[in-house]
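>> received
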Amino acid sequence: MMPWVYGSFLAAGAIGIAISGRRSVLSIAAATLASSILFFVVTNFGVWAGGTMYVHSWAGLMECYVAAIPFFRNSIAGDVVFVAVMFGIYEMALRYANNAAKEMAAR
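>> returned
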C-alpha cells in the first residue's frame, strides 16, 4: 500500500511544482483540490488492486471508492485547513520581511 501513498505524494508535489510560478488563491485552491482527488483515487485504487477486501471487478472498485467517501471529506477539509494555514504563515512572514527591509533601507 505504501508505494501508492508515496506515489500520490510525489504526484501532488509535481502539481505544486507545476503551479509554482502562478501563486494565486485560485491556483493554490485548484492544486489543493486536484491533489486531494489524486490521493483519493490513487490510494483507493491501491487498496482495491492489492487487497482482498473487495472483489477484483468494476463493481468492487466502485464499492471501494464509495466506502472511502466519508474519509475523503475529512481529507479535503484537512488539506484546505493545512494549505490555508501554511500559505497564510508564509505570506505573513514575507510581508514582515519586506516591511523590515524597507525600514532598514529608510534608515
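>> The CA atoms of residues 44 and 67 lie 10 Å apart.
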